[in-house]
Amino acid sequence: MPVARPTDLDGALGSLAETPTADVLAGGTDAMIEITYGQRRPDHVLALRRVPELRGHEADGDRLRFGAMLTYTQMEHDLTELAPGLAMAARTVGSPQIRNAGTIGGNLGTASPAGDTLPWLLAMDAQVELTSVRGRRELPLSEFITGPKRTAREPDELITAVTVPRVDGPQHVAKIGPRNAMVISVACFAVIVDTTNRRVRAGMGSVGPTPLRPIEAETAVSDAIDWDQLSCPDDAIAGFAHACAEASQPITDHRSSDDYRRHAIGVLAARSLRRCLAA
User: Model confidence over 160-201: pLDDT tens digits?
Assistant: First the structure.
């Protein structure tokens, strides 16, 4: 099995242009599970660990840019001020070893409905940067993920970064699983009380074929919030939770029933918003 290990972005893009069927490996935390269980048999591998242009993060004016090889550990420790919700999401991922290896680009590329960073990124209107030898383009996350583990990435494209607007206000991310740590979520929720634009942003994971954005719930609760006092009536918070549950599209599988997932997302929505307003 040939393994390409380029040391710069041009080399990575050239390698993928020559072999667009190659399996692109970032941290490998999802790929190794599939390979171990015989669900994937790559003919070629493109390993990105040595590509410096894909690392790190930066604040550029009113936007934040996260390189595709930014690890969960780096998110957890380096983004507590710039992107506190993303840092919270990173802390819930696996073990320290997994967080050291796993990346935001890998989470996007895998496109699992249970991806831990995806609800926050969706709530933040994230733009996914895709690059090939043909050029560069950006897609909204809502268009990039097309179904469970399916994306709009072309075979010769790499995910090079993801960008979000820079906003002020409290943020919270929460998840429910069959145990307290190192677990795939049964339901996960992200909320940003965006005081810059006076709106509530929300994203839901593990309750649909893709991460979901409860727009009607966001609009209703945004209108109910007193933005000067940063407070909200209890009945409006309850309505927000109910609307989020109604917007979910859960299934029943070996980890949970659809009814439990719908109930859980409502509980997480109310709890997360209350924690933001009490911050």
Answer: 999 999 999 999 999 998 876 678 899 999 999 999 999 999
pTM here?
0.95
- Domain match, 144 and 184 both: no
Instruction: Name the token pair of 146.
Output: 């097309």
Buried b (16+ CB within 10 A) or exposed e, 124-158: bebbbbbbbeeeeeebebbebbeeeeebebeebbb
Q: Alpha carbon of 266 to those of 216, 232, 248: distances in Å? A: 14, 17, 9
Claim to verify: residue 200 and residue 254 sit in the same structural domain:
yes
Closest CA to 212 of 177, 250, 185: 250
Q: Are 52 and 96 in contact (CB under 8 A)?
A: no
3-class DSSP assignment, residue 137: strand
**The tokens 């015989």 sit on which residue?**
38
* CATH code of residue 236: 3.30.390.50
Q: Which amino acid is at 49?
A: R
Two tokens at 185? 């979520």
User: Measured between alpha carbons, how far is 111 from 91 in angstroms, rounded to an integer?
Assistant: 19
Specify whether 94 is located in the same domain as 221.
no
> How many domains would you assign to the chain?
2
